[in-house]
Amino acid sequence: MAMILEIISISLATAPWLLFGLFLAGLIKAAIPQELMKKWVGGSGIGVITRSAVIGAPLPLCSCGAIPVALSLYRGGAGRGPATAFLIGTPGIGVDSILITYALLGPHMALMRALGAVITAICTGLLVSSTKTSAPDINSEQLRCPDRCGPGTCTSPWSETEKERPEPWAARIRHGMIYAFSDLLDDIGIWILAGLVVAGLIVAFLPPEVLIDYGSGLLPMLLMAVIGIPLYICAAAATPVGAGLLQAGVSPGTVLVFLLAAPITSMATLGVLRRELGKTALAYYLSGILLTSIMLGMAADQFILFAGIDVIAQSRKVRELIPEWFEWTALIILISLTIRARINFTRLRPF
User: Fold this and answer.
1) DSSP result, 210-239
2) What's the pLDDT band for 303 if we cut at 50, 70, 90?
3) What is the pTM of this model?
């Protein structure tokens, strides 16, 4: 019973912000065509790598959903450093997940997560940019996503047909909203549900005194990073798990390591990266994520300790901003949209 109550509580806190995040994701999809992204991230150098990481951060793409976009940018002239920064920054954080982080973990954790994702993307992009080309080209069929982010088809919202058939703003916004509340929601919906269940289990059965002595320091952060890198879950789904770990006594810095490492990559990403850029680039990619996320986690713990910030108290204050009736309304709408997206996917699924 305690687990169910915790799941409901976290779901109510998440629903309004997730709906708003999906709405913003639809607007971003409508506003940024692929040709404009290619112009922004074309070339190489630290400036382009930084721009690629910043541009990729708010985009509504999961890890394997970012693969076809990142590789098309790479094939279109972007250097391996900028392409890598985009491939990391895009799934590391997004408008939907940053709003959920704000709701469940408070403003400081949301800010540190956003900055951490960008910094991780920049540092890893710089490492990968120092490698030389050592892998053969792959054909266009391999540019497609080799895995799925969730139960839905792992597709990119940026299509090559956009440059051939420019659409009026009204149509672009409509298509952006269809993508956000149908395709994207179907991709992440079941993972968010899994994250809520895991968070409920952690909060209900792991009291703070169990982990408070073992939830901070280098070893727990290393463990979180090692577990998080291959254990792919999308950024939005990782957030309630992080909130559960925080309430169970894990330090904010250790939670930050998990939030940075888990959504950034997947086995699909690693496989494509190895084929496209080579083994050396893959090793630099993994090393950059591992070292940067741990350093950021340690810095976050020191900053929070020095500033005297109570992250859990902050998250409770955020919940007070929205009345309970609005939370329930948002949750009902979100469940209805998720069911509708799942039904539409089942009808369109090829056999």
Assistant:
1) HHTTTSSSHHHHHHHHHHHTTS---HHHHH
2) very high
3) 0.77
